[in-house]
Amino acid sequence: MRSRPAVLLLAFAAAASVAFADGKRADGKRAEPLPEGPGLSKQYPGDRGIAGAEGVLVAESFEEGDVAALSSRWREVKNPGGKVLALVEDVPDGAHGSRALEVTATVGENTGGHLYTTYAGQDRVHVRFYVKFLDEEYVHHFVTLGGYRPATRWPQGHAGERPKGHERFTVAIEPHGKNGREKPPGAWTFYNYWHEMKPSAGGRHWGNGLAPVETQRVPRDRWQCVEVMVALNTVTEEPGGEPDGELALWLDGKLVADVRSGVPRGPWSGMGFRLLDRGGEPFEGFRWRKDKALQANFLTLSHYVTAGAMRRNGVKDPAGRRVRVRFDHVVVADRYVGPIIPAR
After folding, report:
1. Preceding peptide of 45 cis, ω within 30°
2. Residue 268: which of 339, 199, 167, 221 has the closest Cα?
3. Is residue 336 part of a domain?
4. How far apart are CA 97 and CA 289, in angstroms?
């Protein structure tokens, strides 16, 4: 794995709406479409050598050493009893190498595990990873990125608390069961904490879920390429900054969500909102931060499973259930990465 400066950029787009890219016209819209298909990956077939590419902050393919060696490349490794993390023979199609990381959660024995790392603070960043869900089960929380000020050596809690705008924001991409309405593992949804999030009915602040226009169901027993981009908002002399932050999601190289100021949304509550193809209300935009010193600076490759989350999705007796997931070819960069191009 490799770690050096980059930017945290997550764009979240409605599949049926037009997405524009980095440059903006005078009317605030993008001048160019966001990329799709291969990006930086095109220059590194099979991902071989991508760790040394300009703009890459973190790269992990799980080919070096054993599980114990991960602690030399990641700031924190959670592996309860040494039974949760394992290196297995499996890779996405076209990728170099032969191994992936398997994370096994066993309900009643543990809640799974994670790898956590930090990198120099960025205003925009892309996180690309490959994932394969092996079991037809629900999870609680999944891969998370964001910013802590100051940076820490381990993931922070604060569940149910709204950030203040200068000390943290978090973005999780995770399968959501929607109270059992979605077949496990669920459908891809963002789960975000930032200082302008909406409160729940009880006055607490739980992560606001943001869903694409079209439901993106998580496949089982096959590798999927997931890429998230977060762009932090501009902070000027005015308090609170500008609402020009962004969030985006690509699945297998296809842009499926681009969340920015003005895109149509449904009703926004403490549960979050769904993007719309048309109608609804224009999204107010992301003010991820009030202080420009707060930047994106961490990634948690997490597989967190609880009995409570399973029960909320209609599982009556979750005790003892085994929930396995595999990760591979993780890249954090300051630009679009895209899916692996097979080596010749």
Report:
1. no
2. 199
3. no
4. 39
Rg of the chain over Cα atoms, rounded to whole angstroms, equals 19
Helices (H) and strands (E) in the chain, counts: 1, 18
DSSP letter at 10? B
For residue 298, count other CB atoms closer than 10 A to its CB.
25
Q: Which domain holds residue 93?
A: 40-300
Whether residue 286 is predicted with pLDDT greater than 50 in this model: the reply is yes
Instruction: Please give the Cα distance from 251 to 129 (Å, whole number).
Output: 10
Q: Is the pLDDT of residue 27 over 60?
A: no
CATH number of the domain bearing residue 214: 2.60.120.200
Query: Which tokens belong to 98?
Result: 């032969």
User: Does a structural domain hold residue 72?
Assistant: yes
Looking at every residue in the chain, the average pLDDT score rounds to 91
Decide: 271 and 49 in contact? Cβ < 8 Å: no
Query: What stretches of the chain adopt beta strand conformation (E)?
Result: 56-60, 76-78, 85-89, 99-106, 112-122, 124-133, 143-148, 168-176, 187-193, 208-211, 224-231, 246-251, 254-259, 264-265, 272-274, 281-282, 296-304, 322-333
At 188 the three-state DSSP class reads strand
Distances (CA, A) of 3 to 45, 51, 89, 299, 334: 21, 9, 25, 11, 12
CB 116 within 8 A of CB 299: yes
Count of C-beta atoms within a 10 Å radius of residue 150: 7
Residues 106 and 112: their CA atoms lie apart, in Å, by 7
Q: Encoding tokens for residue 267?
A: 């009703």
Count of structural domains, the chain: 1
Decide if 338 is inside a domain: no
- Give the rounded percent of residues in the chain with a pLDDT score beyond 90: 86
pLDDT at position 15, please? 34
- Point out which residues pair with 282 in neighbouring strands: 264
Residue 243, classified by CB atoms within 10 Å of its CB into exposed (0-12), middle (13-18) or buried (19+), is middle
Residue 33 domain-assigned (yes or no)? no
Place of tokens 């794995």: 1
What's the pTM value of the predicted model, to 2 decimals? 0.91
